[in-house]
Amino acid sequence: MLDSYVFQNKYLFIAGLVGLLFWILDFFSVMRKGELILPPKYRTQNVFSIMRGILLVLGVISWLLISFALMGPKTPMGKSNVKKEINDIYFVVDVSRSMLAEDFPPNRLEAAKEQIRKFVELSPVDRIGIIMFGDKVFTLIPVTTDLKLVEQSIEQIKIGFLGSGTNIGDALGLALARSETSIAANKSIVLLTDGSANAGLMSPMQAAEKAKELGIKIYTIGIGGDPNAKLPVGRDAYGRKRYQNMPGQSMDFETLRKIAQESGGKDFVASDNDSLNEVLSEINKLERKGLEIKGRIIYKEDYYKYLMAGFFLLVFVESIRRIGYREVA
């Protein structure tokens, strides 16, 4: 029978035995001064001794029950299956020089970073990762639920060290490779770019086909598109910013649409801060799946029945001792 129990703390049994020891010392009056007890005339000495022996046995049993209860016995009832949402989302962010265009205040990149922050705040159950790309691609942070770390990483999204090209295909390929081994039930990639692919070994459509094969959806966001967008190119002799025109037609909306369509995702165009906010809010509401996590064992707590049995038995014994036999402490 004991083999069927799991104990929270077996060593607490000792506390019950200590209580039993003090109770036995009290029962045999070891700690008290001698006193004369005259039983009623109709009660023979033999009957008195037998009854005290029974009370001793019952008292010992009560303390053993209490000691057993202190160990916290419980019975395993089986494993529960908990359904928990675990979703992986990789933000693949364009950090080419064109993202400095100021049609989004203060510029396209800073506007995108701010919206990613808001997205993270709205998705505390998701695992967020960030990949940056220019000519080269770089994993800024693998997927994690550490929101503070994600927020710190967003600050590190900067333009310059990855080159000025737009390597969309390899960036998506890196996100797919990292997502492939994840245990998450739902995996998504959010691509933010303002240009057309002009670098890399893998084409954007090859990446989209691989995403379809892996069941990973790609949501594309074309940032900008304003034909009057201006790109800062330094400052003049008076410290004023100098700009050059950057036609909105440089963005390949058609390819972004095909990437999303092939992978089962959606394509969006964000022309200003408000529309970018709406786009990411919509992505946050898209399909979410739960992952069934097994292994949490459910227990039936049994300590209380032993504790109650021991307590009431001890109360019974003490009542007989102190009322029936008029033993006093």
UniProtKB/TrEMBL annotation:
The chain crosses the membrane at residues 12-30, 50-71, 303-323. Residues 88-283 form the VWFA domain. The keyword Transmembrane helix applies. Keywords: Cell membrane, Membrane, Transmembrane, Transmembrane helix. It holds the Pfam family VWA. InterPro entries: UPF0353/GerABKA_families, VWF_A, vWFA_dom_sf. It comes from the Bacteria. This is VWA domain-containing protein.
